[in-house]
Amino acid sequence: MEETIFSKILRGEIPCHEVYRDEHVLAFLDIQPIAHGHTLVIPVEPAATLDRLSDASAAAIGSVLPRISRAVLKATGTKDFNVLQNNGAPAHQTVFHVHFHIIPKPNAEEGLGMGGWPAKDIDHAEGAALAAQMRAYLAED
Ligand code: 5GP
After folding, report:
1. Exposure check for the chain: N or C terminus, fewer CB within 10 A?
2. What is the model's pLDDT at position 58?
């Protein structure tokens, strides 16, 4: 994986407003927050996208996400929030080191907007085949 700005933050070469750190995980404030308290949670492991992250790092992040979320909510006096995780440029990823956004949603204006959510009804026959295919891939992974 190519170096990213987050590698430099992990090594302390670029400053950040650190929120949490352990052996596997770093959390810090986003430099361009879309809501007060917008926080990023990243693995120390330099994986570009979530599907390339090890189970150990994923488990480490998963186990601290609720606790970090609680701290973000308490510090901002917010009770609603989104967790966003982008993978790939078309999916709005700009830094190619896995990261989870914790974004407080204090009101309709601030935080994550859901302007484009092109929902349509599932085709159940197609869905059954698709889910079976996914189960098969999971069984061999
Ligand atoms: P993405 O669009 O890849 O999901 O989000 C990347 C996030 O990283 C953006 O919200 C952006 O503001 C944040 N970011 C980019 N560079 C820096 C930086 O140098 N420091 C911090 N704290 N955040 C950054």
Report:
1. C
2. 98
